[in-house]
Amino acid sequence: MKSRLRNKFLLFFILLACIPVLALGGTILYLLDLAHQRDVSNLELQAIDQKEDEITKFFADTLGLLELRVESLQALENQESQPSWQERLVKQIFQANDAFEEISFIGLDGRETAKYSLFDPRAQLLYVADLPKFQEARKGRNFIGEVYHTLSGPMLTLAAPVKVKEQVVQVLSAEVSLSRLIKAVEAARLGATGYVTLFAQNGVFISDRARGNIRPGFNGSQWDRISQALSGAVFTGLDQKDRYESIFGTGSVVGAARRLPEIGWVIAVEWPLKEADEVLRNVRNQVMMVTLGSIVAVLLAAPLFAARLVRPIRELEMNAQEVEKGNLQTKVAIQTHDELEDLGNAFNTMVQGLRRLEELKEEFVFVAAHELRTPSTVIKGYTSMLLEGDAGPLTKKVKTFLSGVEQANQRLLQLVEDLLEVARSEAGRIAIEVKDIDIREPIQSTVEELALLARKKTISLTYELSDTRHVLANERRVKEVMVNLVGNSIKYTPKKGRVRVFHEVKEKELVTHIEDNGYGIPQEAQSKIFEKFYRVESPETRDITGTGLGLFIVKQLVEKMHGAIWFTSEQGKGTTFSFSLPIAS
Ligand code: ADP
Question: What stretches in the chain show pLDDT beneath 50?
């Protein structure tokens, strides 16, 4: 019952404290995760935007240089002969941008008319009518070729029409080096380990160098993500599928990718999770530590709290048990400043009430016994006078009846005396004064007084003196104790028995034993023998009269003289009552 209440409190505390902490911890972790994923995605998208700007600008610059718009060819031709103005222009355009490696003019018949090449200043003029760059530009459209990788790095062909009033008159074609653009793109970093990669419109990985196992020129469209991005899918880095194993051998990454609308290239950003999630991991660990710490604190504190709550209840229960045992001096001291304290006070008031009732009862017994004693003594006086013949001679029959009355009256008187003694002792009215006495005196006088009674029952009554005889006690009370104990021994021992009184020194106490070989006390009765009015119900002792108060009084007297009383008994074999008293030093 006790532990169950404690366990209930314990469970209650733990649930009450742990559930919110866990819920809060979980929510914080979830929100953190969301915020972090958004941050990572934003960073990656920003990187893509920035690179997109750089690439777009690169193409605008280079193509812009190729798109010549002239009022009329005459304006150019007039200055010098035809080849020389074209030669001058290709050189000028070539010098306008570092990325150009070769610039050529192509006539409408598909024949190159002028050329400036970084590799070969005297490069041959070729017939290129079949090449797509010429065919596209001839139709008036800009041409962006596929990326190809050379020893000096990734390259690309650009071509644009030369127009006179919207009329295509020539085509300008250029071989462009992508090395610088790619270097700029690859120099970009997310954190320390995140990187940007580029794939051309046909899926080819554009780079200056190999990355992991992937070499420049590798066809990225073999890879689902890139082939999807090439066909227009956008990866933001927010999705679960944006966390994957990189083909570049950098382990688990979070990636974003997007196709550039005009050029058709795909910019892909990858950030190894090891770094990207590091901050999140740290914060997450801290949140988990705090959550765990809170839970541990609750687990440690809850039993203490539960025990505190249960303690007053247990105190009440223990005190109630004391009251049940008859101890009305018990008092609970609960100081919790709440209803439990009120309950404790109510309990104390209740016990006080019980004490008052007990006092009233004792008072009643005392008064009643006291009032009974006088008439009983008067009856005793008159009956003994009558029996002694003071009122003249009595017939034998009257004498028999009168002695019956005398015996009954004697029993009544004894009962009254016992009741008075009990009432006095219970009300604490017996204050026993002790002094150094010779214990032999009261014992010997008791033995002498009871010798006649013993002889009548043919019981041998002996007293063995001891060397140690001085005890701290009250002579009159010791005699009262002895009369009761020896009287009981004679009463509860059949004819031809024996009663022996002797001493034993035990440390600072003198023990007096009263040993008989009488009926003995049944095992089941032994625990109650010192209780008020308790008498053993057995066939041998049924006819022996008594009040059941003697031993109760004896115990009170011995204890008031700072001694103790106990007994050993075996039914049918005999009993030994023993009491100790402090030896006078
Ligand atoms: P009573 O007036 O009945 O003798 P006591 O308080 O003196 O009351 O004793 C209580 C009971 O203890 C007795 O009724 C008796 O059954 C038992 N008793 C006491 N002394 C002895 C003894 N020496 N031998 C056997 N039984 C005893």
Answer: 1
